Amino acid sequence: MCKALDEIYESGIAVGREQGEKAGEKKGEKRGEKRGEKRGEKRVEKRGEERFAALSERLLRDARLEDLKKAVSDRAYRGRLYREYRLR
Question: What segment(s) does the record annotate as region Disordered (predicted)?
Fold first, then answer.
């Protein structure tokens, strides 16, 4: 009888361990995804800032202040300027 109880106990421990490992893996995956998303967002933001800085520099160099003012608030117009200056 003692051996049967020991086997049940060990089986329960194994099941509990497996469930704990799965829960830990899911938690780790979520944490990793969040970190990856944050890194990606920072990269995209940095690229966007660099791209707009390059556009601003070129518009200032070409004395196109009105275009720069409009580009600040008009996304479609800014897109046309990016294409015009071939800024990707």
Answer: 19-47
Asked if 57 contacts 85 with a C-beta cutoff of 8 angstroms, the reply is no
pLDDT digits (tens, 9 = 90+) for 20-78: 888 888 888 888 888 888 999 999 999 999 999 999 999 999 999 999 999 999 999 99
- Residues ≥6 apart with Cβ < 8 Å to 52: 78
Distance separating alpha carbons of residues 24 and 77, to the nearest angstrom: 48
pLDDT for 78 equals 98
Examine the pLDDT at 1 and tell me if it is beyond 70. Answer: no
Rounded to 5 degrees, what angle do the CA atoms 55, 59, 62 make?
140
Residue type, 68: L
CA distances to 23, 75, 77 from 85, in Å: 51, 15, 12
